[in-house]
Amino acid sequence: RRQYFDTHALVCLLEENGFTTQQSEVIVSALVKIMNTNLDMIYKDMVTKVQQEIALQQVMSHIGGVKKDMIILEKSEFSALRSENEKIKLELQQIKKQVTDEITKVRADNKLNLNLEKSRVKELHAQQDRALTQTDRKIDTEVADLKTMLESHKLDNIKYLAGSVFTCLTVALGFYRLWI
């Protein structure tokens, strides 16, 4: 092993300071053994460049595998979210159609009621003012009720749509955060 100091110069220095040649050589020999033992322990803990490159390649291949798995997972989750979103859209369209049908039925019923009331007014000319006032009140109440019901349905649809959109956004952001 290569020594990092001049052993002969150390022996000479020790002899100059009162040690015998044999004592100086034993001391220097002990120092060399101690240094070699320490260096051996240090070298055991060290990694060679080849080992370091192999470990780095293994880590990089593992990272590549994880990235592929994340991409596959992201695509499958995204397609599942897309299909769920389509289902929700179809349900919303069905609800919208049902609401429209109900409004049409209520309007037809109101028109029928209005026509009946008009025919009664013609038949009972004496009670015309009273019946007309009652009919107007009924119409106003039902129109107000219809407007209230329509606004309620609109708000329910908007809440459902907003909830769905925020749910989809939350899930997408969660996956985005997991991916990053």
Automatic annotation (TrEMBL):
Q: Which keywords annotate this record?
A: Coiled coil, Membrane, Mitochondrion, Transmembrane, Transmembrane helix
Main location per the UniProt record: mitochondrion
Q: In the UniProt record, does the keyword ATP-binding occur? A: no
Any one Pfam family match given in the protein's UniProt record, by short name: CCDC90-like
What residue ranges are annotated as transmembrane? 160-179
InterPro entries membership: CCDC90-like (IPR024461)
Task: Provide the Gene Ontology terms for cellular component.
Answer: mitochondrial inner membrane
**From which residue to which does the signal peptide run?**
none
* Cellular compartment(s): Mitochondrion membrane
Annotated PANTHER family: MITOCHONDRIAL CALCIUM UNIPORTER REGULATOR 1, PROTEIN FMP32, MITOCHONDRIAL
According to UniProt, the name of this protein is MCUR1 regulator
Question: What is the organism of origin for this protein?
Answer: Acrocephalus arundinaceus (Great reed-warbler)
The gene it comes from is Mcur1
